[in-house]
C-alpha cells in the first residue's frame, strides 16, 4: 500500500481497535509544537523554535510556499506512486533528508541516536551536525542502517576541520555538507533573553571532545577539565575569515560529494559549481542567521534558473507539510531537508516521535501528489503551479 493510504488507515483504525481514547493526536506541525512546548524546558523550546531578530525570515520561509498554488490534474492513473529520487548515484525512497540540527541532547535524552534511528526506519538520510552531542562514530554505531551525511562547521583550526572530514569518511558518511551561513551566531533574541547557549554548558560538543586534533590542543583532557575544552571550543568555532580559496583546499582533501549549505545568491551558487562543489543547499538556516534574508523558496527559484537543470540543488526552510515538498520540487529542488519539524517529533517521543512525524509528512506528500495527478517526481515542474 502507498504510504499515504497506509498511514491514514492505521490512524482511523485506532478507533476500531480501542487504541484511540478521545485525545487529539499529534498530526499537524502545530500539534507537535504544542506537545514539544509541554515537555521541553523554556530554554530548550526556544532554542529550537526561536529565530534571529524579529523572526521575519523564519516566517517568510513558510509564507513563501503560500505564494504558489498547485493545479491538480485529472484522469491520470495514480494507483501506484514512486517518490524516489537519485542523489550522487544512490536512490533515495523519498526526496527528503533530515537537516543537520545541533545539540539534540537538549530535546531528548537519546538525542541524535534516536533521530538517526527514526530516519533509518523510513530510509531517509540523516545529516549529522558538527555540533551533535553524540559523536559521529557513536551515531554510526548505534543507528546501524542509517544513511549518514556529515555537516561541517569549519573550525578556525584547519587541523580540526581536516580531522572532522577524515572522520566523516571513516564513519561511512555518504556526503559532506559545508555550512557557510554560520561563521558566527546571529543575534538570537530568545536565547539572549535567557543567557542560554548550550555549548557553554557542555552540550553539543561531542565531535570536538572526541576529536584527536582538538584534544591534542588541550593541556588536560576534557574528562578532567571540561571548562578548558569549552574555552578552546569558543576560540575555534566559526571562521569569519573563510574565502573561496579555502574551499579549493577542502575540495582537494576529499572525494566525498561536497555540498555547500547556506547559499542564497545565484552568483554564489554558480561559483560553487565552478569551484567543484557537487551540490548546493539553498538555506537561510531556518531564519536563525540573517533576519530579513530572502525566503529559501524564493532563492531556490533564482538559483535553479541560474545553474540550469542538471546540478544538484537541495533546499530547506519552512517545510511543514507535503504540499510544501511538492512546490519545492516543482520549483527545481532535487530534494528538501526538514529541520524543526523532526526535532519537535524528537522532543515529544524520541525515535518513535521522529519516525511518526516524518511518516505523516511523507503520507501527506504521497496523498498530495496522487490527488494532484502525479505518481512520480518526474512530472513535477513549474507547470504544476500557479501564482497565488
Ligand atoms: C535548533 C536548530 C539547530 C540547528 N543546528 C544546525 C547545525 O548544527 N548545522 C547546520 O548546518 N544547520 C543547523 N540548523 C539549520 C537546519 O539545518 C536547517 O537549515 C533549518 O532548520 C531548516 O529550516 P526549518 O527548521 O524551517 O525546516 C539548525 C536549526 C535549528 C532549528
From TrEMBL:
> Which PROSITE patterns does the entry link to?
FMN_HYDROXY_ACID_DH_1, FMN_HYDROXY_ACID_DH_2
Q: Where is the FMN hydroxy acid dehydrogenase domain?
A: 21-388
Arranged from A to Z, the UniProt key words for this protein are:
Oxidoreductase
Q: Which cofactor does it need?
A: FMN
Q: Which domain of life is it from?
A: Bacteria
Database matches in InterPro entries = Aldolase_TIM, Alpha-hydoxy_acid_DH_FMN, FMN-dep_DH, FMN_HAD, FMN_hydac_DH_AS
Asked if Oxidoreductase is a keyword of the record, the answer is yes
Catalysed reaction(s) here are: (S)-lactate + O2 = pyruvate + H2O2
Entry's Pfam families?
FMN_dh
Q: Which family is annotated?
A: Belongs to the FMN-dependent alpha-hydroxy acid dehydrogenase family.
PANTHER family (alphabetical): FMN-DEPENDENT ALPHA-HYDROXY ACID DEHYDROGENASE PB1A11.03, S -2-HYDROXY-ACID OXIDASE-RELATED
User: What name does the UniProt record give this protein?
Assistant: L-lactate oxidase
Amino acid at each position: 500500500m502507498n504510504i499515504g493510504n497506509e498511514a491514514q488507515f492505521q490512524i482511523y483504525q485506532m478507533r476500531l481497535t480501542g487504541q484511540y481514547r478521545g485525545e487529539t493526536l499529534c498530526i499537524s506541525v502545530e500539534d507537535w509544537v504544542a506537545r514539544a512546548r509541554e515537555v521541553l524546558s523554556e530554554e530548550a523550546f526556544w532554542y529550537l523554535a526561536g529565530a534571529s531578530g524579529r523572526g521575519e525570515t523564519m516566517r517568510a520561509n513558510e509564507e513563501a510556499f503560500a505564494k504558489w498554488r498547485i493545479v491538480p490534474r485529472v484522469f491520470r492513473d495514480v494507483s501506484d506512486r514512486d517518490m524516489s529520487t537519485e542523489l550522487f548515484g544512490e536512490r533515495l525512497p523519498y526526496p527528503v533528508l533530515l537537516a543537520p540540527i545541533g545539540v539534540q541532547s537538549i530535546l531528548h535524552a537519546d538525542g541524535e541516536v534516536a533521530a538517526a534511528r527514526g530516519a533509518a526506519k523510513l530510509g531517509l538520510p540523516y545529516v549529522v551536525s558538527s555540533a551533535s552531542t553524540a559523536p559521529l562514530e557513536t551515531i554510526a554505531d548505534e543507528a546501524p542502517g542509517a544513511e549518514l551525511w556529515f555537516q561541517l562547521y569549519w573550525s578556525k583550526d584547519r587541523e580540526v576541520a581536516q580531522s572532522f572530514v577524515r572522520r566523516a569518511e571513516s564513519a561511512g558518511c555518504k556526503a559532506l555538507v559545508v555550512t557557510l551561513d554560520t561563521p558566527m551566531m546571529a543575534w538570537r533574541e530568545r536565547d539572549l533573553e535567557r543567557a542560554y547557549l548550550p555549548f557553554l554548558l557542555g552540550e553539543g560538543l561531542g565531535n570536538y571532545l572526541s576529536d584527536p586534533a582538538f584534544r591534542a590542543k588541550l593541556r588536560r583532557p576534557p574528562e578532567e577539565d571540561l571548562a578548558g575544552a569549552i574555552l578552546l571550543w569558543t576560540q575555534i568555532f566559526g571562521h569569519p575569515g573563510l574565502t573561496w580559496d579555502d574551499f579549493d583546499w577542502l575540495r582537494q582533501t576529499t572525494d566525498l560529494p561536497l555540498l555547500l549549505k547556506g547559499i542564497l545568491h545565484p552568483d554564489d551558487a554558480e561559483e560553487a559549481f565552478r569551484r567543484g562543489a557537487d551540490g548546493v543547499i539553498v538555506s537561510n538556516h531556518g531564519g536563525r542567521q540573517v533576519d530579513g534574508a530572502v525566503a529559501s523558496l524564493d532563492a531556490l527559484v533564482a538559483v535553479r534558473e541560474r545553474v540550469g537543470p542538471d546540478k544538484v540543488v537541495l533546499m530547506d526552510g519552512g517545510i511543514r507539510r507535503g504540499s510544501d515538498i511538492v512546490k519545492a520540487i516543482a520549483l527545481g529542488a532535487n530534494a528538501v531537508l526538514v529541520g524543526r519539524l523532526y526535532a519537535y517529533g524528537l522532543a515529544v517521543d524520541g525515535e518513535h516521535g521522529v519516525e511518526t512525524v516524518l511518516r505523516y509528512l511523507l503520507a501527506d506528500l504521497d496523498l498530495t501528489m496522487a490527488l494532484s495527478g502525479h505518481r512520480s517526481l518526474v512530472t513535477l515542474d513549474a507547470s504544476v503551479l500557479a501564482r497565488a
